[in-house]
Write a structure and sequence with these properties.
Layout (H helix, E strand, L loop, with lengths): L1 H17 L13 H13 L3 H15 L4 H17 L3 H17 L3 H15 L20 H22 L3 H18 L2 H17 L3 H18 L5 H14 L3 H17 L3 H17 L3 H18 L2 H17 L3 H73 L7 H66 L2 H36 L7 E4 H19 L6 E6 L5 E4 L1 H24 L8 E9 L2 E8 L29 H11 L3 E7 L3 E9 L1
């Protein structure tokens, strides 16, 4: 009864957040006062599902205010969602965590979290038994609740690619969101989609398209009541007007921006608007106005501890004091600017350490790959010589079989030796595939290991600095340094766990196949081996880059397969595809862009995986030979000619089929068909 009363009290507390207008419940964020009350209730409640939702709401409240705090709430939400086995809520937590990683420039972690969120949320059926779908979609429809979370994950993927500079792909994600919104009819989602599309157009230097998108964003924000990012849209419109030389229009939008951000309690965006006005005032020699807006920006960035914002605000104040002839003050704020930049340099030092470690790892992988090629070459020649000798012996013994029955045992032994030699060479090919796989995993594991090493080194330096400050009696600075040390330790712990997960995954992949089929998600398996194959070829040639296009149909689902064996099939096909485009790239075709396209689909009782490359294609006079053992078009020492032969055997053993489409100078497509 006590738990039930707590649950009812939590829902009663949240009712003001859920009411109000036509805004979908999914987008409602607590005010400062509501957040304080929610924290008090969270400290008392013992109901896991209620705690899960409280953590989500508090994460949303701090999302654009204090991102480290927001992340801690979202991670707590994720743990509770998994505990109570609520997969839709789990996908929502992963989506929010991915956005937090993106906002703090940890793109690799962000992509990992968002890909998991997208894959989970697009699975039809996980909404069965969902807890309170009305908290994710106003109508309470479980299907639409799941679709809302799915759209949110796709939206965050678009933001990540925009941050990373891949603007065309970002726009494609936002177009997918608007397609989903034809079903959801969510005006707040439309507002955010247009805002992020505008940012991508900005990155592509298409100001007219960007401005139209930002104005659409404001329009839908007003309709929906979700005005959290209206100030940011006004800021971007102001930037476009300023670049076009329309100063008055730019000032108007910057003022609209900070007014909207004050109303929406968005200090980060508010500071951006003040900083823009400060810079405009300085450029037009309005020194007093520049002082005023720079100080406003500085006070905000001091509160939210935004390093980049602090650099800009201090730099503006230094320039303003310099323009007014107050050199002492100009020097003071310039020194503050440099201090904050030096703080950023610590992160740069970590990147340098990572780069050094990664280069050493790549050299090791190259040496191991060269050694493996040499061993394979020797074994191939030995095998061919052994076959010739064994065939001669076999012919001799067969001719004399009637006269010397005892020779039968010798022939059988010769055949057994032949099979053993063949098995040994097949194992060599498998080891070569494992080498490619290991090279990819080495790239994955190097970063977290270097983070552990390098943040440990930086922490040691910080401890020395802290001791110096303690000796000086500067307790405040010592506490500040200790906070940095704690943050470093958290990162060490985080990346240590990440390395542990990668090692476990590597052991799983290298484990000998049990021969037992098990239900396996084809999309996940395909995506994983595509990434590992790419890392493997990049380990051999760090200058190689290729575009990877994927179209994984959600309906593909799971198939009963031996995952390690089908993984080897995929690895062989991806390695061959990357080899083909790399070979064509090295032939210096003008305007050539190496591209690998991977598609999955399910038709009736068959699953199809298609791997397409835009290399030179396969000549028609040899296409019938590609699945023959020992046939290869690669130079001596770079291939045994068993990769596609093994691929063919494994697919056939699964009751499937493999087909080839090819055009010379245009590329090749391999289609794998597997029973569902």
């Amino acid at each position: 009864m006590k738990k039930a009363r707590q649950h009812i009290y939590v829902l009663f507390l949240l009712m003001p957040i859920w009411s109000a207008g036509q805004l979908n419940i999914y987008w409602k964020e607590p005010t400062i006062a509501q957040a304080d009350s929610l924290k008090q209730v969270l400290a008392k409640t013992t109901n896991d599902t209620a705690s899960m939702y409280l953590n989500r709401q508090l994460g949303m409240h701090y999302q654009e205010k204090t991102r480290t705090v927001s992340m801690s709430y979202y991670q707590a939400m994720l743990g509770l969602a998994r505990k109570v086995k609520q997969q839709v809520w789990e996908a929502e937590a992963m989506s929010r965590i991915g956005y937090m990683y993106t906002a703090t420039y940890e793109y690799a972690e962000g992509l990992r979290a968002l890909s998991q969120a997208q894959a989970l949320a697009e699975q039809s059926g996980i909404e069965r038994g969902i807890w309170k779908p009305e908290l994710l979609q106003s109508g309470g429809d479980p299907h639409l609740a799941r679709l809302t979370v799915f759209a949110g994950a796709v939206q965050h993927l678009g933001i990540l690619h925009s941050f990373a500079g891949d603007y065309p792909r970002s726009i494609a994600y936002h177009q997918q969101v608007r397609k989903l919104n034809e079903t959801l009819q969510d005006q707040a989602l439309a507002s955010l989609s247009y805002l992020n599309t505008g940012e991508a157009y900005n990155g592509l230097n298409k100001p007219d398209s960007a401005k139209r998108s930002f104005l659409h964003s404001v329009e839908y924000a007003e309709k929906s009541g979700h005005r959290v990012y209206t100030g940011l849209a006004y800021y971007f419109i102001g930037k476009i007007c300023e670049k076009e030389g329309n100063s008055e229009e730019a000032k108007k939008y910057y003022r609209k921006s900070y007014i909207a951000n004050i109303e929406m309690e968005s200090p980060d965006f508010e500071g951006m608007a003040y900083q823009a006005l400060a810079d405009m005032a300085l450029n037009s020699r309005q020194i007093d106005s520049s002082f005023f807006y720079s100080r406003k920006a500085l006070s905000i960035y001091n509160v939210i501890n935004d390093t980049l914002g602090l650099i800009g605000a201090n730099n503006s104040l230094s320039a303003a004091y310099g323009s007014s002839g107050q050199t002492d003050s100009a020097y003071y704020f310039l020194k503050k600017t440099l201090d904050f930049k030096n703080g950023l340099n610590k992160e740069e030092r970590v990147k340098v350490f990572q780069s050094i470690g990664l280069n050493e790892q790549i050299k090791v992988q190259e040496l191991e790959a060269a050694q493996l090629r040499t061993q394979t070459k020797i074994r191939t020649y030995s095998f061919i010589g052994g076959i010739i000798v064994l065939l001669l012996f076999s012919a001799f013994f067969y001719r004399n079989y009637q006269r010397q029955r005892k020779d039968k045992a010798i022939i059988e032994k010769s055949y057994a030796d032949l099979k053993a030699t063949q098995s040994q060479l097949i194992q060599s090919e498998k080891m070569a595939s494992l080498g490619e796989l290991t090279a990819g995993i080495a790239h994955e594991i190097q970063n977290p290991l270097n983070f552990v090493n390098n943040f440990s080194e930086l922490s040691a330096e910080l401890i020395d600095e802290m001791n110096e400050e303690l000796n000086k009696g500067d307790i405040g600075e010592a506490k500040s340094i200790s906070a940095d040390i704690k943050q470093n330790l958290e990162k060490i712990n985080h990346h240590g766990k990440r390395a542990d997960a990668i090692v476990k995954g590597m052991l799983q992949h290298s484990r000998t196949s049990s021969g037992q089929k098990e239900p396996t998600d084809i999309n996940e398996l395909t995506d994983e081996y595509l990434r590992l194959s790419y890392h493997g070829i990049r380990a051999k040639d760090k200058n190689f880059n290729a575009t990877m296009e994927t179209n994984f149909e959600p309906a593909t689902g799971k198939a009963s397969i031996i995952p390690q064996d089908i993984g080897r099939v995929l690895l062989n096909l991806f390695n061959n595809a990357f080899y083909a485009v790399k070979e064509k790239m090295e032939q210096s075709h003008p305007g050539y862009r190496p591209t690998i396209s991977v598609n999955t689909s399910r038709i009736n009782d068959k699953i199809t995986i298609s791997v397409k490359d835009n290399g030179n294609g396969i000549p028609r006079n040899i296409i019938d030979k590609v699945f023959q053992p020992f046939f290869t078009t690669k130079p001596t020492g770079q291939g045994t000619g068993l990769g596609l032969s093994l691929t063919y055997d494994i697919v056939k053993a699964h009751g499937g089929d493999i087909k080839i489409e090819t055009k010379e100078q245009e590329g090749t497509i391999f289609h794998i068909e597997l029973p569902f």
